């Protein structure tokens, strides 16, 4: 029961991949949306995914006016597979086709999530491809500055570098915005908490890729 109107929006995202737990996530969304539940409008509920094409297409048939956020982070298969280990099993083109299908079926705008990594995915070619993808999907782009994690080789871009990349994406026709992340001063920002917990569990063993939960690496785990 919601005693007041303080809860206005809900985002379904990690830890873990929401679409890998499809039936339970959809059941929860319907309860949140129902008049006898929390009565939160579906258009105020966002589901974030690293990309499961079949489930995205299935979601498009659910008659739910959800917002879909797609964690892209790279504009080519090779780099995306390096940053997101699970992505090695799915071609980006297949994911983009599924996202386009979602938009065509629902009319709901898609948001592309893109973590900016200094010297990795912020070239002019990346900006051009990112804008091209966004225009194809008629999507907005959320640009996020990477939150540093001990043991990983990636670097957080400066504000100036991030703004320059945003300008480049916009120059190529992409609707890009830089999203502010909070909590990095206490290692509690996006991507940091899970990594720190895994380091404690694994006695600090480093990883060479952006840390994802086991369920994100293996969507069939659920």
Structure characterization notes:
The longest helix is centred in the middle third of the chain and has 15 residues, at 92-106. Helix 2 (53-60) links the parallel strand 2 (45-49) and strand 3 (67-71). The radius of gyration is 18 Å and the shape is globular. With 222 residues, the protein is α/β, with parallel strands linked by helices. It has a single domain, classed as Alpha-Beta Barrel (TIM Barrel). The chain contains 8 helices and 6 strands. Strands 1-2-3-4-5-6 form a 6-stranded parallel β-sheet, covered by helices on one side. Residues 182-189, 191-197 and 203-222 have low confidence and may be disordered.
Helix and strand arrangement:
Elements (H helix, E strand, L loop, with lengths): L9 E3 L9 H12 L11 E5 L3 H8 L6 E5 L5 H7 L8 H15 L3 E7 L7 H14 L2 E6 L13 H13 L3 E5 L12 H10 L12 H4 L5
Parallel strand pairs: 1-2, 2-3, 3-4, 4-5, 5-6
Helix pairs in contact: 2-4, 5-6
